[in-house]
Amino acid sequence: MSDVHYFRTMPASGPRSYPGRIAIIGDLGLTYNTTSTIDHLMSNHPNLVLLIGDASYANLYLTNGTGADCYSCAFSDTPIHETYQPRWDYWGRFMQPLVSKVPLMMIEGNHEIEEQIEKKTFAAYSARFAFPSEESGSSSTFYYSFNAGGIHFVMLGGYTDYNKSGDQYQWLKKDLAKVDRKVTPWLVATWHPPWYSTYTAHYREAECMRVAIEDLLYKYGVDIVFNGHVHAYERSNRVYNYNLDPCGPVHVTIGDGGNREKMAITHADEPGNCPKPSTTPDKFMGGFCAFNFTSGPASGKFCWDRQPDYSAYRESSFGHGILEVKNETHALWTWYRNQDAYGTTGDVVYIVRQPDRCPVEPDVIN
């Protein structure tokens, strides 16, 4: 039997009640960089941790425990391509000092797909984490929501059906309509693949998801979006449909937790780096929605020829972020680099809500 562990639950929902410090991490893995990330994170004493996909990278390890970037390539003739589940156990023991004291909420990433016999996917992800799916009216572990004080978190699935006719979209529409901004003024959404990343890696890969869902998030006034997947850090200005918009959300890509894959370095707007549109669709979800821009500085092009207006800050470094919601209108966002001394910040900004300028009138649900 393990030792007895305990943690403090979230404060009751209310406009003046917030967790002190919320840690945001993505694409964590189990490497030297992961160790640095978690050490830095724990020194910030968070009250809640959000893991935005790609936890253990067990799918990159063979059944003998050695690493392999392509399992099916290494054993192309085997009928069953199981991933190395003990890697999940190693990851869990490594994370125990943190997750035994602080609640962690997880959403799936592409490395959680882990296709097995009969094309079963996401088995380890669905079994190893707890999800308030039923409590939030969701029928899936791939998307759910919860409150933490005066914040309503919407955790979305980038690797399940997100079309307007699908279950996730219909659930999201009902969930957002029920949010009472007088009780939970802040609305935060997370999913794994980003919509507004300027790095060459995974550039516009989730465009079909953006086309399907962005209007709904904008209608209900989502304040902040957190993503992973791209192994670097980037923060946007408030943006909607690639245009600066004071009522759009701030998008933060924080897939820099410490994964064993390479760091994303090059940007799609740099000369010679713009990928071919045909290479961009997500391999698991399929579909093609990333066309040339029709207006603005990038009109007629697939990539910008300079850092886009919506991109406020970007850097290729491992690290983590801390969100501190101060009141109904102000939240402090801080990104910490691993290579810096403890307490040293890489990016700091106040995210300010303007409910008078951007009013939200929820629909009435019967």
Automatic annotation (TrEMBL):
<dbReference type="GO" id="GO:0003993">
    <property type="term" value="F:acid phosphatase activity"/>
</dbReference>
<dbReference type="InterPro" id="IPR041792">
    <property type="entry name" value="MPP_PAP"/>
</dbReference>
<dbReference type="GO" id="GO:0005576">
    <property type="term" value="C:extracellular region"/>
</dbReference>
<protein>
    <recommendedName>
        <fullName>acid phosphatase</fullName>
        <ecNumber>3.1.3.2</ecNumber>
    </recommendedName>
</protein>
<dbReference type="Pfam" id="PF00149">
    <property type="entry name" value="Metallophos"/>
</dbReference>
<keyword id="KW-0964">Secreted</keyword>
<dbReference type="InterPro" id="IPR039331">
    <property type="entry name" value="PAPs-like"/>
</dbReference>
<dbReference type="InterPro" id="IPR025733">
    <property type="entry name" value="PAPs_C"/>
</dbReference>
<keyword id="KW-0732">Signal</keyword>
<dbReference type="GO" id="GO:0046872">
    <property type="term" value="F:metal ion binding"/>
</dbReference>
<feature type="domain" description="Purple acid phosphatase C-terminal">
    <location>
        <begin position="301"/>
        <end position="340"/>
    </location>
</feature>
<keyword id="KW-0378">Hydrolase</keyword>
<keyword id="KW-0325">Glycoprotein</keyword>
<comment type="similarity">
    <text>Belongs to the metallophosphoesterase superfamily. Purple acid phosphatase family.</text>
</comment>
<keyword id="KW-0408">Iron</keyword>
<dbReference type="InterPro" id="IPR004843">
    <property type="entry name" value="Calcineurin-like_PHP"/>
</dbReference>
<feature type="domain" description="Calcineurin-like phosphoesterase">
    <location>
        <begin position="21"/>
        <end position="233"/>
    </location>
</feature>
<keyword id="KW-0862">Zinc</keyword>
<keyword id="KW-0479">Metal-binding</keyword>
<dbReference type="InterPro" id="IPR029052">
    <property type="entry name" value="Metallo-depent_PP-like"/>
</dbReference>
<dbReference type="Pfam" id="PF14008">
    <property type="entry name" value="Metallophos_C"/>
</dbReference>
<comment type="subunit">
    <text>Homodimer.</text>
</comment>
